[in-house]
Amino acid sequence: MGKKIAKRLQVLQAKIDTQKVYDVQSGVSVLKTLASAKFDETVEVALRLGVDPRHADQMIRGAVVLPHGTGKKVRVAVFAKGIKADEAKSAGADIVGADDLADEIKNGNINFDIVIATPDMMALVGKVGRILGPKGLMPNPKTGTVTMDVAKAVSNAKSGQVNFRVDKKGIIHAPIGKVSFHEDKIRDNMLELIRAINKLKPVSAKGKYIRSSTLSLTMSPAIRLDSQELMDVK
After folding, report:
1. What is the pLDDT of residue 9?
2. Which of 5, 180, 189, 207 counts the most CB atoms within 10 A of its CB?
3. DSSP readout, 108-156?
4. Which fold has domain 15-69+161-232?
5. Which tens digits make up the pLDDT trace of 163-218?
6. Which residues contact 156 (CB under 8 A, 6 or more apart)?
7. For the purposes of burial, counting CB atoms within 10 Å of the CB of 130, is it exposed (0-12), middle (13-18) or buried (19 or more)?
């Protein structure tokens, strides 16, 4: 780590009380003071859940449309044919196709952020699964990206849908906006995400559901949040 970066992180760290666990309101207020990059940094939430993702029923995965969007322009690709392809185009999809789209992906042309597919196209999508899967782009019914209602799926993606899933260590990382957002918008987006995750709490999960939680920017240290407050979000 360069001296410049180390010094910048030191300055930012001094703004955070490391002995303190912040409530959401205070955490967001402090977060807004940590902007230090030359670009509009992404606000990120990390949650360590009391689940074991090795068990299928504890594999927390879903999607939520943030009320104030993510602040990011999202490019959407849709696997569909006929009327459904027309619906996707009308809804604002950036790329719509079938075999031709699969060929583009095989050739390494992946200039999109979300992939949506109608159920009848999943056999075709499966052929490029090895490429899409590792990039987190594989359509999935649990995130609403395998659906006959492609117009709604495209609309959700364009208006700020965030897909989330726990990793092998039981941690969820999710973007909830930009540091330029007003504090209230960051808070609203965060609570909407937490609400969606709380609804997915498996019956088989033992002990505390949200073990620990942090809030950070792309280039900032993390702020510890009150996990109990988050678990009470309904």
Report:
1. 83
2. 189
3. T----SEEEE-GGGHHHHHTTHHHHGGGT----GGGT-B-S-HHHHHHH
4. Ribulose 1,5 Bisphosphate Carboxylase/Oxygenase (3.30.190)
5. 999 999 999 999 999 999 999 999 999 999 999 999 999 998 888 999 999 999 99
6. 63, 65, 144
7. exposed
CA distances 21 to 47, 60, 135, 186, Å, are 14, 25, 33, 18
Q: CA–CA separation, 42 vs 159, rounded Å?
A: 16
Tokens of 34: 């940590």
Q: What letter does residue 9 receive in the DSSP assignment?
A: H
**Arch. (CATH architecture) of 76-158:** 3-Layer(aba) Sandwich (3.40)
Identify whether the C-beta of residue 196 lies closer than 8 Å to the C-beta of residue 62. yes
- 3-state SS class at 233: coil
What is the pTM assigned to this prediction? 0.88
Residues in the chain, overall count:
234
Q: How far is CA 166 from CA 42, 163, 173, 178, in A?
A: 20, 11, 8, 22
**Confidence at 2, pLDDT banded by 50, 70, 90:** low
Question: b/e map of 171-180 (b: 16 or more CB within 10 Å)?
Answer: ebebbbbbbe
Question: Model confidence at 1, in pLDDT bands (50, 70, 90)?
Answer: low
For residue 181, count other CB atoms closer than 10 A to its CB.
21
